Sequence to fold (838 residues):
Amino acid sequence: MGRQPVLTMTTISKTFPGVRALDSVDFRLFPGEIHALMGENGAGKSTLIKVLTGVYTADSGVVALDGQQVSFTGPMQARAAGVSTVYQEVNLCPNLSVAENIFIGREPRILGAINWRELRRRARALLARLELDIDVTAALGTCSLAVQQMVAIARAIDIQARVLILDEPTSSLDSSEVAQLFRIMRQLQNEGIAILFVTHFLDQVYEVADRITVLRNGRLVGEYPTAELPQLALVEKMIGKELDALERLDEQPKRELAAVEASTPLLEAAELGRKGSVAPFSMTIHAGEVVGLAGLLGSGRTEVARLLFGADRPDHGRITMDGSPAAIRTPIAAIARDIAFCSENRRIEGLVGELSVRENIMLAMQAARGWTRPIPRRRQDELVRKYIDALSIRPADPEMPVRNLSGGNQQKVVLARWLITEPRLLILDEPTRGIDIGAKAEIQRLVVELSDGGMAVLFISAELEEVLRLSHKVAVMRDRRMVTQLANDDTLDADRVMATIASGASS
Amino acid sequence: MTTTDLGNLARIGRWRLPRRHVPVLATFALLLVMYGIGVSQYRAFSDIQVVFNAFIDNGFLLVVAVGMTFVILTGGIDLSVGSVVAMTAMVSASLLQNGLPAALVLLIALLIGPTLGFVMGCVIHYFEIQPFIVTLAGMFFARGMCNWISNSSIPITDPFWTGVAQERIGDPRGNFVSISVLIAFAVVAVAAYALAYTRLGRNVYAIGGNPQSALLMGLPVARTKIMVYTISGLCSAIGGILLSFYTLSGAPLIAVGMELDAIAAVVIGGTLLTGGSGYVLGTVLGVLVLGVIQTLITFDGTLNSWWTKIVIGGLLFAFILLQRLIGIRKK
Fold:
């Protein structure tokens, strides 16, 4: 591209307490291009956009628009300069009309009074430019989500936008609505607007984007023309190849999948799904089986777990347990059926930092018994001691406030809490993220032991090696669909799973 | 999806559009039914003066409820209005007793309410405290100030006040309204215009619809939120003046619970308590509903006046359920 970039960001760094969110990242955007910004959650995409639009101030680095250095103090100033953002959530007012949502804050006025006729006329003209036939007087809340998204874009481009940032605009749209959105994106592209497109959906990137910038762990991996970057290479660049560092488990021969799956499934999901969350999928989990859930972050792995646990209500399909239908509509119902869920965000959803290790471990069991029947202190001490030893929680002091423990040990406390209730199905969502290698190996060893003891485990992890090491069967998620389920035999390796994630085919 | 498909969706939207008018229309229908009952039961009820009297007796409530409409449209609440009405009347009566000129008294009285509203608005917005508790504090403060000024009622003998109070504007057949009613109508007209045709008004609706979005759309959320409490304070002050015209006195315990009447009128008038939907016209109808209930019970003569409260309670339940049903069907 011989033209000048409309926007350049040079050596942008941003540090939050304890996290280097952006480390000397460069980014360029040319007029009339659709540029995909790719990376896993936490790679720094949002931070980069927030630095660009002035929500955050960069610690160092230069943002230039048309070669002029700029430093926006907020999204409004960025907008005035022609840099508009449309967010994943439609940030409009459902109670106002379509026309008003487009123009509120800059309505045409005569002598201070809003000129409604002119406002509606302009709204119609603008939507006509986008080839949208929408009744501008309808309340926005009565329109479909797709239409609302289009209205948000109409609002964003009305003031002579030069750069349009679309932050995961497609995550709640269905495929025909996405097509509609892409048509509008191409049209804006033809008008010379530079579009920065953030998405988790690989197919969509290859459908519309001209170029791709990949971030990983706050660093720039590279900037590539889409045509020159095959999907597999893109996935590798997003995930990185840091897969072999882990201490190997003592490789016991894994039981044959056929043997594990001989009995009636403990849990069977048939066409289970929820619109906007995860497409209908079917899977079985047997007693003693470890099912791995692989896929990029945001591919729908956690959503699958939440459906199985009743944390989200499915709008499609049903669940069978032990061969009879089971209505799991709330986590309480799931717990009653001996399902345990160790969530991804242990600090937010899992632990009470102020309480001691003992109190945190006893929480789930006490809740299951009801608060009117306290567990005798002696019994508590016995149980807690047993699990502190079994999981080698360090320091081995039951009365230590849990916030003083390291991440790995906190994770073990969450695990202990659920294990104490003796679940039949244990769902582990990213149990080893952000913990050191020793603790990782211990948690993996524990998963193997538990499954040998007859517990069913759904193991969710971004690390393919880990998934492959533990699972009898690997379900691959991509773009919020379960694309395939692979038996974990000798032919399955990380490359094949990665290829499946990249291509979306059942290889 | 093609553009025609989207068009169809939008047309379905157009068909649904009148839904936001449903609560107001329901209130209007209720008013007609109640008036019809009155006319069929009591001959004198058909006299147009009955309607005028409803306005004369409730003009101050109407003005206060208009201010409350602004606050509720943003999703807030203002519990201080009754006390501010009383405080305004007390201050006026006290200052007049001390011989200050009527014009100056009016000016001072009209400044107190908005000032308190402004302060409460700032506290609510900048400290992110629930409007309920902030305006509750404002309510206690203003009521306390009334008693601090005087423990007993202060009569007003100022010629301007008595003149306005006794002025009757009417037709030759003897039907009349008071100046207070005209002031109340003027307030209604200004408020309706402001909500429909000014940026301030539209921002009020936007904040009620989704405050987070309003902020991200670059609307002046802080200014607007503080403004609605100031407007409510101003309306309470005007209401207080009107009340002092009506009673020709300031009493420390007058208008106790008026904030609840105002909220009831606004809600019965079809404004959503969650904000973002409603009209000043609805509030006018809501106040009239309250007025007609009072009138019906007065005409009956055998019923205890507390029946007014019982009927209002039942109506409030009915209207809140109606709002809920409309809200559910929308989803």
